[in-house]
Amino acid sequence: MIDNVAEGSKIRAKRLRKLLQSCPICQSGFADHQYSQFAMTINAEENAESYYAFLKAADNREWQELCSFQEFQGDRDAIIATALRCPGKGLAFILEDDPWAL
Ligand SMILES: [Zn+2]
Predict the structure, then answer these.
(1) Distance from the alpha carbon of residue 44 to the mean position of ligand 1, in angstroms
(2) 85 near 35, Cβ under 8 Å?
């Protein structure tokens, strides 16, 4: 797990806070919560086979299979799987579209 205050993840943590607004488990803020982006793949027509395999693994909660997807390109749309740990209350699984351009 990556601490949400780690220097390298500040932008990502800010984006995740904005997206969720509150923890989906405890409904409060993110103090002492941690997250990790653990899988991602490119969302593009030529990568459709991999994209749908990613979604199938996510739907079936096949975590090891999902972790095998580590494809990312800064100039391509992506889908990202993130685990959010709520202290003492468990994990939330978040799937997020990550467009390269706004
Ligand atoms: Zn929480």
Answers:
(1) 33
(2) yes
